[in-house]
């Protein structure tokens, strides 16, 4: 009976984790360039939790282990905005930005110019080019961003946006504000990432799918809670009957 309770608790912990992941996905349905995550679980067979001494041997006890989350790199919908400073990323590349914590990576292509003419994201992080930050003068007009990230104005080519990829993007860590950090060294994106000017990549979250997952998780959690409650009642009944016999 104790094993059943432990299994139920491990399931509830895993379901709570999945609920947190779904909630975060739903909260970022409208976040530009957001990539959803999926909870990942693994069955763990307890090697010593068995009762082989009984005539009818018990099955091995199987617990649920939280194996973290996986990053869904599926392409989000491309929405035309007509803003020449907006770019939508196609492929698995990431934009490089400078933050107070160091270099970070994002899919947020909603660029703008700050008061000093620096190209920044909508959160104010400086967009990095191959030679560092990209700055445009007040006299420059006709800003255009090419598919490879080349930025041109009335004064000619002004730089190229740094696009990078990772050998294992699943190792990227969410830092909040639609940013990722990486322990591995990024590589130049090359043809693995292209930009579409005058457009934005929307979140790849599908609300209907997430709502379905949410209902499934709630249903499973309720079933496990009910099972634990019944087991607790059975244990209480067994204790009372043993007391009566004694």
From TrEMBL:
Per the record, a Pfam family? Flg_bb_rod
- Gene responsible for this protein: flgF
Q: Which organism is it from?
A: Methylobacterium soli
Q: Where is the Flagellar basal body rod protein N-terminal domain positioned along the sequence?
A: 8-35
Q: What is this protein called?
A: Flagellar basal-body rod protein FlgF
Database matches in SUPFAM superfamilies: Flagellar hook protein flgE (SSF117143)
What region holds the Flagellar basal-body/hook protein C-terminal domain?
A: 197-240
User: What's a BP term from Gene Ontology annotated to this protein?
Assistant: bacterial-type flagellum-dependent swarming motility
Q: Mind telling me which InterPro entries this protein's record contains?
A: Flag_bb_rod_N (IPR001444), Flagellar_FlgE/F/G (IPR020013), Flg_bb/hook_C_dom (IPR010930), FlgE/F/G-like (IPR037925), FlgF (IPR012836), LlgE_F_G-like_D1 (IPR053967)
This protein's record includes keyword Membrane: no
Q: Where is it localised?
A: Bacterial flagellum basal body
Keywords, alphabetical: Bacterial flagellum, Cell projection, Cilium, Flagellum
What lineage, starting at the top, does this entry show? Bacteria, Pseudomonadati, Pseudomonadota, Alphaproteobacteria, Hyphomicrobiales
Any one annotated GO CC term = bacterial-type flagellum basal body, rod
Keyword match DNA repair: no
**Quaternary structure (record):** The basal body constitutes a major portion of the flagellar organelle and consists of five rings (E,L,P,S, and M) mounted on a central rod. The rod consists of about 26 subunits of FlgG in the distal portion, and FlgB, FlgC and FlgF are thought to build up the proximal portion of the rod with about 6 subunits each.
Which family is this protein grouped under?
A: Belongs to the flagella basal body rod proteins family.
